[in-house]
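An instance noted here:
***
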Amino acid sequence: MSQPRRTSRRRAWTALALPALLCVLAACSGGPGDDAAAPAPSASPTPSGPPGTLFDNFHYSGPDDPLLTAHGWEVRTGGGGPGIKDTWSAAGAGFLSDTTAQGGRAMRLQASTDGTEQGTRQVEVQSTGKNLFTGTFAARVHFGNRPTSGRNGDHVVQAFFPISPSDASTDYSELDYEYLPNGGWGSVGPRLDTVSWYKADPPDRVSHTLKRRLEGWHLLMITAMNGKVTYSLDGKELFTSSGKYVPREKMDVHFSSWFIDLPFTGGPRTWETKINWFYYKAGEAVSQADVQKTVDGFYSDGTDYINTVPTS
């Protein structure tokens, strides 16, 4: 089960300079690509579509692509926790061609360590709208059970979660998927924790653990409606929380890869999590089949990004 969360989660994010923002507004092209082998994506069409819908398939050229910021995403570069504090780096966020991903592209999060604080880099990408509340959250995520390079054994966390903008909020809300291929906090892995929070400090939460190897692509869904939160994996319900363990205020959504601790030194290793797409429908419970049908329609139409969620 997850550790006490982010009691000092200072956020310092990459910022888009005003000239770059003006460039986006003038429909200029983005910056240099993170994935040199892939062609730079073209600008998305003007967002329009079903009301109360957010969809993004992360067709960006790199973490400094002006469209990434214009579409409401930030790459964390500042201090705080969780995990190894003050080790967040934009270098771990990339956008690349992937033949296993729907549409052939995905966002890649690479966390790396050599077993020392100085040699550790964690990575997190979050939305910035702070306007996601009840409804359906869905993401197609690829978990890794082994590092892409180096020795196995790290206590790494691969996470997808909506969360309050402030840990100190009186209406604190957080809904977690956390995959721990090697376990952590005294547990063994692999395990997938689903956790609904009422308060960050002192921690007040309810949780469920699925002890299963989950390497590969999976559809993760959270439905928060009618006084309960339901987590499902590939269409199968895992856990439901209710009572006080439901969203009480609007949230961001985060994707991250981070280390619980540093159990050993002995050379560098890199862990990789991939996100194919993210979908949110405000105020509605959407089935897995309908989520996938809608997403398939966006891909068929050539729609990379839509955001019709009200800002307030």
Notes: The CA atoms of residues 81 and 168 lie 15 Å apart. The radius of gyration is 18 Å.
